[in-house]
Amino acid sequence: QVQLVESGGGLVQAGGSLRLSCSASGRRIASYNTMAWYRQAPGKQRELVARITTTATGDETTYADSVKGRFTISRDTANNTVYLQSDSLEPEDTAVYYCFANVRLLGGPSYNYWGQGTQVTVYS
């Protein structure tokens, strides 16, 4: 079993910044293939915000168009932690932010895991 614990959410004025963190832990983990941040606003579907994937040539990042140039995803591999630096926040960024990980277990397949979510509220 893999646990994902998010932190760093909160209330911030438009134009401000927040740094979200997601710490992963568990047993029999061989590798984290992909770690990502999703968000879900009230009345809307959950959407991908940013993703970081391990490839043969290094980490590859992907961003939603709505956050490109404002958000940055990064990973501390040694500590199994993924970050989302969110700058120039807008009221439209208000949502519950969820950490996601696709994890390969020792001797087995890969599984998807979700964190419990952290609330980000941006006011104008």
How would you portray this structure in words?
The strands form two sheets. Strands 2, 4, 5, 6, 9, 10 and 11 form a seven-stranded mixed beta sheet that branches. This protein is an all-beta fold and 124 residues long.
Helices and strands in order, then pairings?
Blueprint: E1 2-7, E2 10-13, E3 18-26, E4 29-40, E5 47-55, E6 58-63, E7 71-76, E8 81-86, E9 95-105, E10 110-114, E11 118-123
Parallel strand pairs: 2-11
Antiparallel strand pairs: 1-3, 3-8, 4-5, 4-9, 5-6, 7-8, 9-10, 9-11
List keywords for this structure.
124 residues, mainly beta, seven-stranded mixed β-sheet, four-stranded antiparallel β-sheet
What string, H for helix and E for strand, traces the elements in order?
Answer: EEEEEEEEEEE
- Estimate the mean pLDDT confidence: 95
Based on secondary structure, the structural category is: mainly beta
Number of helices: 0
Helix content: under 10%
Outline type: globular
Ends apart, CA distance between termini: 40 Å
As a whole number of angstroms, the C-alpha radius of gyration is: 14 Å
Q: How many beta-strand segments?
A: 11
What share of the residues does DSSP label as strand, in percent? over 45%
Main beta sheet? 7 strands, mixed
Report low-confidence residues grouped into runs of 5 or more: none
